[in-house]
Give the backbone structure.
Amino acid sequence: MKRRFRGWVVVVAVVLAGTGCAADEVPVRSVGARVTPSERPCPHGTFRWGKLVKREVLGGVSDARRFGVRRGVTVHATFEAAPVRSLHAGVTPVPAEGTLDQRAAVEALEKQTGTELADAGTRFTLGGDRVQEVSFKRQPGALFYAAGVTTYEASFAYYCAPADTAPVRGTVATWSPVTYGDLVTCGIDEKLAPASREAERLVCPVGPGTGSADSPR
């Protein structure tokens, strides 16, 4: 997981794990495994790709918290993000049985993008990414923690042979297992990642100076 920190924060401890993925509907291949040609309904088929849409989206966000920090005192705090989005990796519409293995479609998109992607049949969960532990000595405003993920969506046509007149058409939707965390001060004058901007709109106080000081925990 990539970590970014915005504002007057000195980080000394981070509690996190990789993105959680729960299996659903389609068996998930083991690490390093691939769908072999013999396992594919059409072993020598060709993918043609349409538009690829890559987006950074918000996976979860904590409450914004303001701390009373005394001079010379180090504050230790834990932020826990609540999920705001669910994702499911796979192909839509679901290919007819015996036409296309959804895992092969995700693997082909991996090759197209050069990026490791969540396998078909998995669901995105925050897992250990939801918790962030930090320490700091000064903090001028309310802080929040945002967990983001990069999604990939691409339309395709799958041809069993060059002369195939009835290709399988659909869209692959998945995400990169490499997530990122952003610890941000509300209202900071800095360009934020799209997911952090979305989180800021959701949790930051509307007016300056609003909100009471929080007790570290």
Observations:
- DSSP finds two helices and 13 strands in the chain.
- Confidence is low (pLDDT under 50) at residues 5-19, 21-32, 34-40, 208-213.
